[in-house]
Amino acid sequence: MTAASGIARRAAVVCGVGAALPPHIVSNADLTARLETTDEWIRSRTGITQRHVAGADMSTTDLAVRAAAQALADGEPVTAEALVVATTTPDRCCPATAPAVATRLGLTGIPAYDLAAGCTGFLYALATAAGLIAAGTARTVLVIGADRLAALPDPEDRTTVPLFGDGAGAVVLRRGSADEAGALGPVVLGSDGTGADLIWAPRPGALHMDGGDVFRHAVDRMSAASLQAATVMGWELSDVNRLAPHQANSRITSFVARQLGIPDGRQLSNVGEVGNTGAASIPLLLADATADGRLKPGHRTLLTAFGAGLTWGAVALIWPDFPLTRLPEGVGHDR
Ligand code: UT7
To answer: Residue 334: its pLDDT value, please?
Structure first.
């Protein structure tokens, strides 16, 4: 066996996707009733028309369990041997969310841990999960992004409340070969702590954000990371069939697509229906677009994210073929 074939056997391959949204929807009209804002302002500045918000009876752990259970049920039949939860809104400071999620899935005993990298958390989690597979620690890993970002803003702050929603998304990764559909390319990641004060929250209900600066950094970092992730795959940007960017604001993602020269029709979006769901954003988008056929097997797909930290990342893959049967209400909108 050559070193190259050894590496190829240990690529991380996407083989299932799932999502979960709280049933309660807060529309722009609901917000205009209690904040000095308008539906027109929110839609034109962000593209958001509604967001799902969890009640006190639905925790980050609950959302993570639902998304993960669906990813396991709907993808290739595999048992997870490790579990990573990306979240900046864990239910408790200590312990981590992941062991409880694993236990509720009937997976007590497997390695399970959280990581926090803001809205880029899901891509950081993909990278560490691919590392677990490459290291031989696990043959299959559940990668979950789960956040309750709607709880972060001051409820009276019209500049941040409209942006955020709650949810969770998950993918299953299995050991496979680098040349099969679903194999992740190298995950491009970065951070810049000099921007730590651009988005920060000392506690729920007290988010501070410099929206304009965050906007500019998000466009620049996601564009550069996307280009790098495509280049390491040997792709031209014109080869990309689908751009799946973190759903923070439709103007940010349109700027990214424009900078990359990717036509609008190749850009996946669901920010209008779910708002910014943090680490859940990309897997929720993948589940949504797979369910309604915008994302199809064989599509050359580029994922990219940006978030608090500052953090950013991107990864490319050819979208795989796996069964998807039981998406929850609100995921897989008719378009
Ligand atoms: O995952 C990363 C997390 N964060 C983000 O991605 C956020 C990135 N930034 C953004 O999405 C945008 O900067 C915002 C949507 C937050 C703001 O859009 P903007 O075009 O940058 O608006 P702005 O902050 O420049 O505000 C323009 C005006 C201001 O009024 P003045 O000072 O010009 O009189 C705001 O007070 O809009 C006002 N404004 C609002 N008006 C009505 C801010 N929020 C609202 C609101 N309704 N909800």
So the answer is: 35
Instruction: Please state, in angstroms and rounded to a whole number, the distance separating the CA atoms of residues 148 and 156.
Output: 17
CATH of the domain at 127: 3.40.47.10
Residues 52 and 113 in one domain: yes
225 and 117 in a single domain? The answer is no
User: CB of 208 closer than 6 A to ligand 1?
Assistant: no
Q: What is the pLDDT of residue 327?
A: 52
Shortest-distance Cα residue to atom 10 of ligand 1? 211
Place of tokens 């949810």: 167
Q: What is the rounded distance in angstroms from the CA atom of residue 137 to the CA atom of residue 139?
A: 7
Distances (CA, A) of 229 to 24, 186, 240: 36, 7, 11
Tens-place pLDDT, residues 183-193: 999 999 999 99
Can you give the residue range of the structural domain that contains 8? Answer: 3-177
Q: 30: CA distance to ligand 1 center in Å? A: 19
In angstroms, what CA-CA distances link 128 with 71, 142, 173, 237? 19, 11, 11, 26
Please tell me the distance between residue 158's alpha carbon and the centre of ligand 1 in angstroms: 9
